[in-house]
Structures are given as C-alpha cells and as structure tokens.
C-alpha cells in the first residue's frame, strides 16, 4: 500500500481518528450531567437521557421512566441552549469524522493528500473542534 502521508501525517491521521471517535462517543452518551430526581439516579446529555420523569395522566402523578433513550423530538430537548449545543456538537463531530476518515484513506492511497489538502483538513479540524 502506498501512502501520500509522511510519518507525521500517519500519526496525525491516527490521532485524528481517535479524537473523532472519542468526540462522537461523548456526544452520544447521556452522562454529561448526573444527579437524582424523585429519589432516582438521572443523567442526560445533549442528545440522550436516562431515568427521566414523565407525567402519568391516568393517575395524575409523575413517574420515573428508568431507561435510556433519545429525546422524542428536537423540540423535546429541554432548552434552546441545549438544542444549539446539540446541533453545534453534532456538526463538529461530523467534521472531525470527515477529516479523520479522509486522513486514514490517505494512509492507503497514494497522492490523495497533498500539502494544500492537509492544511485545509487541519483548518476543518480546527473548526470542528
């Protein structure tokens, strides 16, 4: 396999992939904020939540749903700030993955990444971060 990357470029490609993977896992995991509510352990992130209260209209009480899952809709995310955070973090993760996968392909394909493409990729990584 021919590579269009130097040794520094190969290290950059693998570190980029590890950082992008860590960012995506962090985005999808619901453990950003931990606490308790109604004597149950709860946690949530921008994209998912675990153990959340739901109003039971038949019994006129609030019950805890003890499972993890995504919000039912974009509007179900608790506040405008969290919605903005979800979009910005998701876009950042997408950009980081795009650059990381392109860099990894550059390890296998000759003349895929030139000096200019590497600089542009670095700028996109900066923007994604």
Automatic annotation (TrEMBL):
It holds the Pfam family L_HMGIC_fpl. One of its GO terms (cellular component) is membrane. The keyword Metal-binding does not apply. Keywords: Membrane, Signal, Transmembrane, Transmembrane helix. The chain crosses the membrane at residues 12-34, 84-105. Residues 1-21 form the signal peptide. It is a multi-pass membrane protein. Coiled coil: none annotated. This is LHPL6 protein. The gene is Lhfpl6.
């Amino acid at each position: 396999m021919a590579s269009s990357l130097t040794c520094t470029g190969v290290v950059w490609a693998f570190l980029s992939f590890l950082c992008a993977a860590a960012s995506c896992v962090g985005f999808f995991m619901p453990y950003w904020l931990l606490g308790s509510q109604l004597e149950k352990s709860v946690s949530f992130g921008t994209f998912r939540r675990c153990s959340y209260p739901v109003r039971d209209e038949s019994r006129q009480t609030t019950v805890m749903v003890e499972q993890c899952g995504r919000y039912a809709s974009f509007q179900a995310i608790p506040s405008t700030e969290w919605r903005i955070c979800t979009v910005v973090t998701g876009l950042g993760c997408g950009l980081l993955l795009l650059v990381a996968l392109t860099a990894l392909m550059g390890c296998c394909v000759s003349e895929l990444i030139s000096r200019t493409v590497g600089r542009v990729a670095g700028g996109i990584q900066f923007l994604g971060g």
